[in-house]
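quick one, two chains, predict together pls
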Amino acid sequence: MNNNFLAELSGVSKRFEKTVALDKLDLQVRSGELFAVLGPNGAGKTTAISLLLGLQQPDSGTALLFGKSPNDVEMRRQIGVMMQEVALAPELRVREQIDLVASYYPAPLTPAAAMELTNTTSLAARPYGKLSGGQKRQVQFAMALVGRPKLLFLDEPTVGLDVQARELMWVTLRKLVNSGASIVLTTHYLEEAEALADRVAVLAKGRVVASGTVNDLRALVVRKHINCSTTLTVEEVAAWPEVESATTDKQRLLITVSNAESVLRRLLAADHNLCEVEVRRAGLAEAFVELTQETKS
Amino acid sequence: MTAISMPAGSAPAREHATLDSSMSTARLLRAYLTEAKYETVRMLRTPAFAIPFLGLPALLYLLFGVVIFGASIRNDPQAGLFIFAAFALFGVMGPGMFGFGMLVAGEREHGLLTLKRALPMPPPAYLVAKLLMALMFAVIVTATMLAVLPLGHLKLSVGQLLAAAMVSILGALPFCAIGLFIGVRTTSRSAPAFVNIIYQVMMHVSGLFYPLPKFLRAIAPVWPTYHLQQLFFTAIGVPSQGSAITHAAVLVALTVVLTLVAVRRLALKG
């Protein structure tokens, strides 16, 4: 076992009756990183997290948390958890929910400090059942970090949040990482992974199909976008063999290509008035679609 | 906000976090007590749970034991004790059965138990908290029953009162075990039905409220309510059937077996 890994799945397989959820999966969470796990529904993200939390046991392979079994409660005292679907006691007030979770840890923050970090102080005396979906997520976030965990597991943390609350959560997450915490994040929002993650793993059919930094993943996709202002028509450009597709948007031409340089040369030659040229590599979203589609085929 | 962002000495900054991850006995005890406190608080804040379980037993005793049959009880104190036993035991059955049955089924289904298993909650705290909640309700119900006793014509010695209170409060335990057993095997939709059926059948065919016809009397020992009622009779000095030790042994065995089976299933399947 490598001691640098806070959490680790090695060669883990897990089946649910006839469905293979994880297929010899390897995943490592390193110290001080924000690690995003991406994948389409059913890719095995939640199962992978469940194994790291000791909620399920692997059929084969090993799951380790701080080098030991996740079933060891002492290891779990170093983690914070925010789950996707959980109905907390609606009768308890926000401060009470946080106080309850704080009692599980050896040296937690005070509920007041956790609420301040997550901007939930104004909700302290409200019964949890009376909160909006977004407010509930914020409270669950406070519950995840009140134990001052070394490692946080956040399953789709920003679902249901408004833009402001989401940005605040992003800022807090970065702040936590900067102060030395590590975070495992699963998300559907690729822009979230793009904005936050130090490292990304893309899961499909229970396997890691790609992992690395966001830039590493984007580099896997050769496709690029050219955005320009031109007198050429969309039909004209779309007919060029190097061009995958071309569309117009507010008098600008959007061209998708795999070899940007040759198309640029041709554009410059064909239109002397060509201006406002922008060349952009495909985003994580496209990388994601391409990577997960390859697995399907 | 920056001032408190992650206070100095926070876990992320610690080099040897594993050394800090053990809990002192005092903090561990606090975790159990906090869990029990909030479990009790939330049930007290649920009027549909708290009002019937806390208020009904004493009210029904007042209705039957004082208002309706008060005069006849003056001549037949044994009948009064029978009614008192019935409502005292009725009061301690409900919180355990419904509290465990419905809450455990719902919390298993809606992710709360999963979250608590992922968090470092001391594993036994989940059930210990519910147990203490049910016992707390049993204490309150017993106290209200003892409080309304002087309004009728029954006279009990301090010794009888203490014995009655002890049997009532400890008597909640087998019903917690039954509720738990149902809660780990049903869904949140079916749990209320199962709990209710068993609750009603146990109350009505065990002789708790009225003397049974002969054929039902023969099978009454099947029900834990019968054994608890006999123990209660012994405690308050009403002639009872069978030996107190046998009744207690039956209740203890039932509690232990159902709890072990349920805990095993919870640990394996959540």
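Residues 1-19 of chain B have pLDDT under 50 and may be disordered.
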